[in-house]
C-alpha cells in the first residue's frame, strides 16, 4: 500500500523529490507557494557546478549522481540538457579544486593560455540545463507519475496532511521546521541572444565581481552577483550594466548581443545542506539549504530522500 506523501516546494528540489517518491510507489502531492515558472529555480543559469554548498563529501556524492542523470537526459531534446565544455578560471596560486573528483576527464590549463590575471584554469565538460525547458519537462514527468501539484502556501506543518512530509521550500523551509534561518544569496543575471557560443566560462574571483557566461540553446546567461542577506528581487540596472561589462571582457563576442530577459533569484544558503529525517511522531524529511547548487544536487538529494522515506 502506498504512502501519502506531501512535498512542500515546487522548485527543482521539490519536483525532483516528488518524482523520485512517486517512482518508489508513494502517492505524492506537491504544495507550491509560487507558480513553478516563478520559483528561484527558474532563474538559475543551471550549469552543473556545486556552488556554495556543503559538506564537501555529501555534495560530491549528490552532484556526481546528478551529473550521471543529466548526462543521460542530454539525449532527450525535450529535457533541455546539453553537455558543454568550458573553463573555470582560477586567480589564486593555490586554487581549491575540491569539486574536480566529480568531473572525470577534467584537465588543468596554465594561466598563460588564458586571459590576463588568471593563474590557471580547469577545463571540463559538464551538463548545462536550460530551465525554461527543463522545469516544464520535469513537471510533465511528475504528472505522468501521478504527482499532483497544488498552488498553496504553507505557513505551518500542522496544516499539512499526509503520512510523510518533505520540506523543500527553499528560503521558507527553515521557518517551517524551526531551524536557524536560511540566508538568501541574491543572484542577478541577464540573458542575451546567443551569437553562436557553446563554451562556458566561470570567473568567480574576478576582481571586478563574479562573472560567468553560460551558453544554452538560443540564449546566453550572463552573471552575476552573490549578495548575502539581500532579499530584493528587482533587477538593478546598474548591476546589470556591470555584469555585462565583466562578461564582455571575458567573451567579446557577446558585445552587442540583444538582451532577451533578466532575472533575480535568492539562493537558499546555510552552513550545510540539511537532508535528514526529523525525530518525532510525524514522518518529516528536510531537504533544503542547497545554496547555488540546487540543480546540481537535485537528483542525488531526491534519491536520498526517497531512500529515507522507504526506511521508515
TrEMBL record:
Signal peptide: none annotated. This is D-amino-acid oxidase. Keywords: FAD, Flavoprotein, Oxidoreductase. Its cofactor is FAD. It comes from Rhodococcus oryzae. It is an enzyme of class 1 (oxidoreductase). Its EC number is 1.4.3.3. The lineage of its organism: Bacteria, Bacillati, Actinomycetota, Actinomycetes, Mycobacteriales. Belongs to the DAMOX/DASOX family. It catalyses: a D-alpha-amino acid + O2 + H2O = a 2-oxocarboxylate + H2O2 + NH4(+). The keyword Transport does not apply.
Amino acid at each position: 500500500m502506498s504512502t501519502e506523501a506531501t512535498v512542500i516546494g515546487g522548485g527543482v528540489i521539490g519536483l525532483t523529490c516528488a518524482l523520485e517518491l512517486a517512482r518508489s510507489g508513494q502517492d505524492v502531492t506537491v504544495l507550491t507557494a509560487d507558480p513553478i515558472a516563478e520559483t528561484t529555480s527558474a532563474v538559475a543559469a543551471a550549469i552543473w557546478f556545486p556552488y556554495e554548498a556543503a559538506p564537501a563529501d555529501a555534495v560530491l556524492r549528490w552532484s556526481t549522481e546528478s551529473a550521471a542523470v543529466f548526462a543521460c537526459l542530454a539525449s532527450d531534446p525535450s529535457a533541455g540538457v546539453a553537455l558543454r565544455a568550458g573553463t573555470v578560471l582560477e586567480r589564486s596560486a593555490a586554487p581549491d579544486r575540491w569539486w574536480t573528483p566529480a568531473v572525470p576527464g577534467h584537465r588543468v590549463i596554465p594561466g598563460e593560455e588564458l586571459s590576463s590575471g588568471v593563474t590557471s584554469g580547469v577545463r571540463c565538460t559538464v551538463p548545462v540545463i536550460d530551465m525554461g525547458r527543463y522545469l516544464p519537462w520535469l513537471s510533465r514527468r511528475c504528472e505522468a507519475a501521478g504527482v499532483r501539484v497544488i498552488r498553496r502556501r504553507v505557513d505551518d506543518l500542522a496544516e499539512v496532511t499526509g503520512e510523510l512530509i518533505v520540506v523543500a521550500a527553499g528560503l521558507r523551509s527553515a521557518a517551517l521546521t524551526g531551524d536557524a534561518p536560511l540566508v538568501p544569496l541574491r543572484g542577478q543575471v541577464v540573458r542575451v541572444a546567443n551569437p553562436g557560443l557553446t563554451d562556458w566560462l566561470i570567473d568567480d574571483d574576478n576582481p571586478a565581481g563574479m562573472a560567468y557566461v553560460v551558453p544554452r540553446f538560443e540564449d546566453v546567461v550572463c552573471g552575476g552577483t552573490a549578495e548575502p542577506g539581500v532579499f530584493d528581487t528587482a533587477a538593478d540596472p546598474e548591476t546589470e550594466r556591470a555584469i555585462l561589462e565583466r562578461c564582455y571582457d571575458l567573451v567579446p563576442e557577446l558585445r552587442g548581443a540583444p538582451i532577451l530577459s533578466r532575472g533575480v533569484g535568492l539562493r537558499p544558503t546555510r552552513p550545510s545542506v540539511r537532508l535528514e529525517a526529523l525525530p518525532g511522531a510525524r514522518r518529516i524529511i528536510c531537504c533544503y539549504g542547497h545554496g547555488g547548487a540546487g540543480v546540481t544536487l537535485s537528483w542525488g538529494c531526491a534519491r536520498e530522500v526517497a531512500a529515507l522515506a522507504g526506511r521508515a
